[in-house]
């Protein structure tokens, strides 16, 4: 690796600068954030000169530096870049730079830990979207003299934050209430989130954001982190009283390793999950826009229109009578469904959730002719056929568990309590992996399966791989890598196959699994009140086309809340739309309403799945305005929502975000999904006119003055379409 000619590397993209001073013994980050422009030699020298902090009282005698690989050797008392030991020794890293190379949009720095005899490679990749990916690998040279393995305890990708970044936002949640925001002041301490579920979990941090106090959707400077990994994770934001060099704090993350999980013998290598960092000067929408742009540019990102989907779970549950499902397929085709997914209950011995997991063979008692009649009927209607599977789980009451108890991921002393009546399959076990790949490959081939809903319904507790004489080893890291290999192997055999990441709903939503899947199931909850929040915050990382959003029946399966048809339909429109309901039980009028909605979805999905997600900052938490705006700001679809009652009788003027002030637009209210109930005698005057057709509106009125919105009843939504006026010669 050749050394780069200049002392300072400056990566730039999409209004972002990342500047690193390549100095001995360790480089340091001079700047990460707003684009500094094309800095000259003098400008770069000035940036380096101003990176020297003061020497404080009762402190190290040299100014503290915050390097690219911070440890105590730098006088750094915060979270170190890595921790570990070699049989209780080599616990004080002494890291030096051995080389650096700058490529287009990428900086690769080679380091060496002289105390532990480790080689470290640190890769910074600034995506054209402005998202900075940080990759790390550690290796023990094959010719290392010490045969004792190095036990890696942790490695953390760390970037500096300025002093003004003092407010933090991340997420928590539970089943059917995923991605619930929580925010507060970042004090002089560490805000640390450790994920120990073997997956990101229903309470995943999702996107850890730190910003200037009061940042919102449309305003404020913010810095964010996502750990792109589907196993255990560690996230942190940290401020020390002495700062981090000239910076105020740090943002970082990585894999959470169990003791003894990674042991580097000579020739061994550990590659950490990639961490994604993003900066925005335009609030949370600016961050979301960067991630959406990056994700949409992936080579494997879905390129075809996202098919309207019907999933059978809330339609039939475990009642898999072929005649009932054939009738459901006919009704689905009639209303415009383009993909039918057969959910849980089709495989051997599966009458409820206590048995059958692991036996991925069609139950001949339930399906005497196999799934062929249903698959053929679905395909004959021109629809795609999908199937629910949960390959990583097993019921003890199953042929797999009885014949291969050694395939269960759990202690040699005996498995602990079940969760949802199930245990975890050790996918990293060579024979278990081969069995699962063969079963999935056979199913996809035999029935022409277009889509797998890949579920994962429990946390990984006591996730250890069984060894000889009870010498069990931690297994989450290997399990996660094996999952990736299994999905990759299946996709290589079936390149057109699409996969959904489902995990008790939204428990595995991360960029690691999305590198090999085509959408996520945001939540098992289809209640539109809950879904408005879940989808709003899932969009902080993922674009709408990757987020499954289904309309359920009038009474929510998970909350028992009854919601109007229009609210359920409009809410499900803003994602990869689908249906979770028994259409054979609906009236002709209800099916006709679904047909109109299906046609509307097909009309607007090009906009919804390719535009910019926007969300307004409103004073009344009971209301929301969100939408999607075309890349050229020439079209938009907005949703005005009220989830509960509140004191204000009037919303006042609400600005429509994302449009161009200097353009001329026209506005109308779309009625295909139905109209909301009003908590007023009549709506604002423009609404009455917009119900009958297009209303001309200058962009300055829409974006500057704003539109007075109607006061809706709780649990109601209104759909507003905006289009640029076409100039007439």
Largest sheet: 10 strands, antiparallel
Secondary-structure arrangement, i.e. CATH architecture of the largest domain: Distorted Sandwich
Share in β-strands: 25-35%
Report the mean per-residue pLDDT as an integer.
96
The number of E-state strands comes to: 40
Give the helix proportion (percent range). Answer: 10-25%
What are the low-pLDDT stretches, counting only 5+ consecutive residues below 50?
A: 1-5
H/I helix tally: 13
- The CATH topology name of the largest domain reads Beta-galactosidase, Chain A, domain 5
How does the overall form come out from the CA principal axes? globular
Q: What's the Cα radius of gyration?
A: 27 Å
The CATH class label of the largest domain is Mainly Beta
InterPro entries: Aldolase_TIM, Alpga-gal_N_sf, Alpha-glycosidase_related, GH, Glyco_hydro_27/36_CS, Glyco_hydro_36, Glyco_hydro_36_N
Protein name: alpha-galactosidase
Keywords: Glycosidase, Hydrolase
Organism: Streptomyces brevispora
In short:
The chain is an alpha+beta fold and 729 residues long. 20% of the residues lie in helices and 29% in strands. The protein starts with 7 loop residues before the first strand and ends in a 5-residue tail after the last strand.
Description of the structure:
- The structure is a single chain.
- The protein has 729 residues and is α+β, with helices and mostly antiparallel strands.
- It has four domains: 289 residues, Distorted Sandwich (Beta-galactosidase, Chain A, domain 5); 110 residues, no CATH class; 172 residues, TIM Barrel, CATH 3.20.20; 109 residues, Immunoglobulin-like (Sandwich).
- It is built from 13 helices and 40 strands.
- Strands 5, 6, 7, 8, 11, 12, 14, 15, 19 and 20 form a ten-stranded antiparallel sheet that branches. An eight-stranded parallel beta barrel has the order 21-22-23-26-29-30-31-32.
- Helix 10 links the parallel strand 31 and strand 32.
- It is globular and about 80 Å long.
- The termini are far apart.
- It is an enzyme of class 3 (hydrolase).
- This is alpha-galactosidase.
């Amino acid at each position: 690796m050749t050394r780069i000619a200049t002392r300072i590397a400056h990566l730039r993209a999409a209004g972002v600068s990342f500047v690193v001073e390549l100095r001995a013994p360790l480089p340091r980050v001079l700047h990460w954030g707003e684009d500094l422009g094309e800095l000259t030699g003098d400008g770069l020298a000035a940036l380096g000169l101003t990176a020297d902090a003061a020497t404080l009282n009762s402190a190290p005698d040299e100014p503290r530096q915050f390097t690219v690989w911070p440890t105590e050797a730098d006088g750094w008392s915060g979270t170190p870049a890595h921790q570990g030991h070699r049989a209780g020794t080599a616990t004080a890293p002494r890291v030096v730079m051995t080389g650096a190379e700058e490529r287009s949009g990428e900086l690769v720095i080679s380091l060496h830990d002289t105390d532990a005899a480790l080689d470290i490679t640190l890769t910074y990749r600034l995506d054209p979207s402005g998202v900075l990916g940080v990759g790390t690998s550690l290796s023990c040279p094959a010719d290392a003299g010490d045969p004792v393995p190095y036990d890696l305890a942790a490695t953390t990708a760390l970037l500096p934050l300025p002093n003004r970044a003092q407010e933090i936002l991340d997420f928590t949640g539970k089943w059917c209430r995923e991605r619930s925001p929580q925010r507060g002041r970042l004090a002089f301490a560490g805000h640390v989130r450790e994920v120990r579920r073997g997956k990101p979990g229903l309470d995943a941090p999702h996107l850890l954001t730190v910003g200037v106090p009061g940042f919102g959707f449309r305003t404020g400077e913010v810095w964010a982190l996502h750990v792109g990994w589907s196993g255990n994770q560690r996230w942190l934001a940290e401020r020390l009283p002495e700062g981090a060099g000239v910076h105020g704090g740090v943002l970082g993350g990585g894999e959470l390793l169990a003791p003894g999980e990674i042991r580097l013998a000579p020739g061994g290598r550990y590659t950490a999950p990639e961490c994604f960092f993003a900066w925005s000067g335009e609030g949370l929408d600016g961050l979301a826009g960067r991630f959406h742009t990056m994700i949409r540019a992936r080579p494997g990102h879905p390129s075809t229109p996202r098919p309207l989907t019907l999933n059978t779970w809330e339609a039939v549950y475990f009642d898999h009578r072929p005649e009932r499902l054939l009738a459901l397929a006919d009704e689905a085709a009639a209303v415009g469904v383009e993909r039918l997914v057969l959910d849980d209950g089709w495989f051997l011995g599966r009458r409820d959730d206590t048995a059958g997991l692991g036996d991925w063979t069609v139950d001949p008692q339930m399906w005497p002719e196999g799934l062929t009649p249903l698959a053929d009927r679905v395909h004959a209607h021109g629809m795609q056929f999908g199937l629910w599977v949960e390959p990583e789980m097993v019921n003890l009451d199953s042929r797999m568990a009885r014949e291969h108890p050694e395939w269960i991921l759990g202690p040699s002393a005996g498995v602990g309590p079940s969760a949802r009546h199930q245990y975890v399959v050790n996918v990293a076990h060579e024979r278990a992996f081969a069995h699962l790949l063969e079963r999935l490959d056979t199913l996809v081939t035999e029935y022409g399966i277009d889509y797998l809903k890949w579920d994962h319904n429990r946390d990984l507790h006591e996730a250890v791989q069984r060894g000889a004489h009870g010498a069990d080893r931690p297994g989450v890291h290997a399990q996660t890598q094996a999952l990736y290999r299994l999905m990759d192997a299946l996709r290589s055999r079936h390149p057109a196959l699409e996969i959904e990441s489902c995990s008790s709903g939204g428990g595995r939503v991360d960029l690691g699994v999305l590198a090999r899947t085509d959408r996520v199931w945001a939540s098992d909850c289809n209640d539109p009140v809950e879904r408005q929040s879940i989808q709003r915050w899932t969009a902080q990382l993922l674009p709408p086309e990757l987020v499954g959003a289904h309309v359920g029946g009038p009474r929510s399966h998970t909350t028992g809340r009854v919601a109007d048809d229009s609210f359920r339909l409009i809410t499900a429109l803003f994602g990869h739309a689908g249906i979770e309901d028994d259409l054979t039980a609906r009236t002709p009028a209800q099916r006709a309403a679904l047909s109109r909605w299906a046609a509307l979805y097909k009309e607007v999905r090009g906009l919804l799945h390719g535009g910019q997600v926007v969300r307004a900052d409103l004073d009344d938490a009971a209301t929301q305005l969100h939408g999607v705006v075309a890349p050229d700001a020439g079209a938009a679809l907005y949703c005005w929502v009220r989830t509960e009652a509140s004191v204000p009788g009037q919303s006042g003027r609400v600005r429509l975000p994302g449009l161009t002030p200097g353009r001329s637009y026209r506005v109308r209210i779309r009625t295909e999904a139905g109209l909301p109930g009003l908590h007023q005698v009549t709506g604002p005057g423009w609404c009455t006119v917009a119900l009958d057709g297009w209303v001309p509106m200058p962009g300055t009125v829409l974006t500057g003055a704003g539109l007075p919105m109607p006061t809706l009843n709780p649990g109601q939504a209104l759909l507003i379409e905006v289009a640029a006026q076409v100039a007439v010669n």
